[in-house]
From TrEMBL:
Cofactor(s), by name: a divalent metal cation
Occurrences of domain Endoribonuclease YicC-like C-terminal (ranges): 172-293
InterPro entries referenced in this protein's UniProt entry, alphabetically: YicC-like_C, YicC-like_N, YicC/YloC-like
Protein name: TIGR00255 family protein
Pfam families: YicC-like_C (PF08340), YicC-like_N (PF03755)
Alphabetized UniProt keyword annotations: Endonuclease, Hydrolase, Nuclease
Family statement drawn from the similarity comment of this UniProt entry: Belongs to the YicC/YloC family.
Residue span, Endoribonuclease YicC-like N-terminal domain: 3-155
GO molecular function, one term: hydrolase activity
Organism of provenance: Desulfovibrio sp. U5L
Length: 293
């Protein structure tokens, strides 16, 4: 079964040195679009992490977040922007002196200003990336399980709708010959009446010529054949699964083209109603397909 592009996955791994919590959220997108929220020390590894993501996901807009919490203080180093902190204290001290106010800097408040600090991981263990990539793979596996569950529901809905479309297609195909014969009879009667009114005897060749032209305009057999093929291919793709979203979307566009032509050719109220219902249901299929990878 195909997978949805919408889902959520999470993994949590702990070791003696640190805890890693990965979260992956996905929504619809035509291509694979990644948004990272990573610790600074891991930013240079984004390209390698993207390759890990591409092993599991082909399409969608993903937000990938890592919460990395060291358990050992020697894994972090914190750098204070001493120049900026000193300048801030000097400015406040000058302001207090200008107004003859007492001033004693509150270092605890000063240290709470996050923009004065820069946190970095010390040179990480060479195996750290492999450990983090393993945590990301677990989150992606959980993410794919959620996408598969939603994709199964979408596939079941699509198959139900496709069965309904097949029934309507069969009804249109069954009604088309009678409509065609009726229109041709009406044309023969109309042409005969007009020619007799002006005193011209209708010839068989002339009637055959007019009916042949009308027959070609009303014939929907080719459109029906292609439509049956598109519906069958849609059903098989949904059942086969995999990365079928774009192919399903293209086939639905082709089905729209064929049913529009049938509606224009039919010139019958009952068939027109079936065509309207068919197009409305096909549009619902297209909306569902937009969610599939």
């Amino acid at each position: 079964m195909p997978k949805s592009m919408t889902g959520y996955g999470k993994s949590r791994l702990e070791s003696d040195a640190f805890t890693q919590v990965w979260e992956v959220r996905g929504v619809n997108s035509r291509f694979l679009d990644l948004k990272w929220r990573l610790p600074l020390f891991l930013r240079p590894s984004e390209a390698a992490l993207e390759r890990v993501v591409r092993e599991a996901v082909a399409r969608g807009r993903l937000e990938v977040h890592l919460e990395f919490t060291p358990k050992r203080t020697d894994m972090w180093k914190a750098t204070l922007n001493a120049g900026l902190a000193g300048a801030m204290i000097d400015e406040v001290a000058a302001l207090a002196a200008a107004r003859d106010l007492p001033f004693a800097p509150d270092l605890n408040r000063l240290f709470s200003l996050s923009h004065l600090w820069q946190e970095d991981a010390v040179d990480p263990d060479p195996t750290l990336f492999d450990t983090l990539a393993g945590g990301l793979r677990l989150a992606l596996a959980d993410f794919n399980e959620a996408r598969a569950r939603e994709g199964q529901g979408l596939a079941a809905d699509l198959l139900t709708r496709l069965a309904r479309l097949k029934d309507w297609q069969a009804s249109i195909e069954a009604a088309a010959p009678a409509v065609k014969a009726e229109k041709m009879e009406q044309l023969v009667a109309r042409v005969t009446a007009i020619l007799e009114k002006v005193g011209v005897e209708p010839t068989q060749d002339r009637l055959l010529q007019e009916t042949a032209i009308l027959s070609d305009k009303l014939d929907v057999s080719e459109e029906m054949t292609r439509l049956v093929g598109h519906l069958g291919r849609l059903e098989s793709l949904v059942k086969d699964g995999g990365e079928v979203g774009k192919r399903l979307d293209f086939l639905i566009q082709e089905a729209f083209r064929e049913i529009n032509t049938c509606g224009n050719k039919a010139q019958n109220l009952d068939i027109s109603r079936l065509v309207v219902d068919f197009k409305a249901e096909l549009e619902k299929c297209r909306e569902q397909v937009q969610n599939l990878e």
